[in-house]
Design brief:
The complex is a heterodimer.
Chain A: H1 2-16, H2 19-24, H3 44-65, H4 71-99, H5 103-116, H6 128-135, H7 146-159, H8 182-196
Chain B: H1 8-15, E1 34-38, E2 43-47, H2 57-70, E3 76-80, H3 93-102, E4 104-105, E5 126-130, E6 138-143, E7 149-153
Classes of the chains: A mainly alpha, B alpha/beta.
Chain lengths: 202, 156
């Protein structure tokens, strides 16, 4: 799965510009990723909750983007979607297995879903760029994906005997380059080599 | 002296000799990784990745380049095409049989009427142990008759 995501990221960054520069030489504030995906691995329930929320969203986004008016975007999205269907199946399976497992795994899965819930709001926000992309038929209407996303989450959590979190306060900022401190640690590890030895190749 | 430009058919013939790095019983042509061979004024070979993050793509590209060199071709353009996305439907019947005799159940639509058959003993009494096997493209099964575990190439 990590390999799939890495490959997909390379396709996207390669289309946007110089993939290496974009990955290895940008500072945290230049990244526009959702806060959800920079949350660290840790307790397996937390990792699973993050992946499940993301995979469910990713699947919906790619499903729309494979019909993008931009040929390259449509091609990458169609390719990636075939893989992401599997990702969602996998993470939903784990949510169900842990939720409908022991008392301990149920409690930890619920706690993890509740803890990350506040990062799911910005996934459906539309900024000026998103609106223009939508108008040109290039990007999807993210706001319209919220309902089907909730439906998917509800369906899986029902089966997992878990409660859909009820919190309404949402953390935001990733899309504006305002990140949690977690991104810094990720980038430090990922970018160290290129920062310490600029242009290093092997 | 450079060898005379071989025909496109000749290029396909030597491409068929290049094994897939992860499933060496199949060639990169069997797998449908090679999408196109053209020779307008230089040789252009178009390939597609099986999975986006397939770590074998660099090896495959290097293998194609060195095979081209062995055949006296000095100018080669390698292109990557993503659309239509790679599918196991592109595997030939012959490739499926070779997978089977190699011990990997070939990709198929799995149903009660069409269960996965053990590539070792042929029994349809099999059970899935894990959907995600040794590589992303395979899942792990167990034969309930001969008790051997085996890989199943996922339909993708």
């Amino acid at each position: 799965m990590a390999l799939d995501l890495l490959g997909q990221a390379r396709f996207w960054l390669g289309y946007a510009g110089d993939e290496d520069k974009l990955a290895f030489l940008r500072d945290a504030s230049a990244f526009r990723n959702a806060l959800l995906v920079e949350q660290p691995n840790g307790d397996y329930a937390l990792t699973t909750a993050r992946q499940f929320y993301f995979d469910a969203w990713h699947d919906l986004v790619l499903e729309k983007m494979q019909y993008s008016s931009d040929e390259r975007i449509a091609a990458i999205a169609a390719k990636a979607r075939k893989e992401v269907i599997y990702h969602l199946e996998r993470s939903a399976d784990w949510v169900i297995r842990l939720g409908d497992g022991t008392e301990e795994s149920h409690a930890r899965m619920q706690k993890a879903l509740d803890a990350l819930w506040m990062y799911t709001g910005e996934l459906f926000e539309m900024d000026a760029v998103d609106r223009e992309m939508l108008q040109r038929g290039i990007g999807p209407n993210l706001a319209a994906l919220r309902e089907p996303w909730i439906e998917q989450v509800r369906k899986t959590l029902n089966e997992a005997t878990l409660q859909i979190p009820s919190g309404t306060w949402m953390q935001r900022g990733g899309r504006q380059g305002i990140h949690t401190e977690k991104l810094g640690y990720l980038l430090a590890e990922m970018q160290f080599l290129q920062r310490a030895y600029p242009g290093a190749r092997w | 002296m450079v060898a005379a430009s071989p025909q496109v058919a000749e290029v396909w013939r030597w491409l068929e000799q290049i094994p897939d790095p992860e499933i060496p019983v199949l060639s990169i042509v069997d797998l449908g990784i090679v999408r196109d061979v053209e020779w307008p004024d230089e040789l252009v070979i178009t390939i597609t990745p099986t999975y986006s993050g397939c770590p074998a793509m660099d090896v495959i590209a290097a293998d194609i380049r060195s095979a081209a060199q062995e055949h006296g071709i000095e100018r080669l353009r390698l292109e990557t095409r993503l659309s239509p996305p790679w599918t196991t439907d592109w595997l030939s019947e012959e490739a499926r049989e070779r997978l089977h005799s190699y011990g990997i159940a070939p990709p198929q639509l799995i149903s009660i009427a069409n269960p996965v058959r053990c590539p070792h003993c042929g029994s349809p009494q099999t059970e899935r142990i894990s959907q995600f096997g040794s590589t992303a493209c395979k899942s792990l099964y167990k034969c309930l008759a001969c008790l051997e575990p085996f890989d199943v190439f996922k339909r993708h």
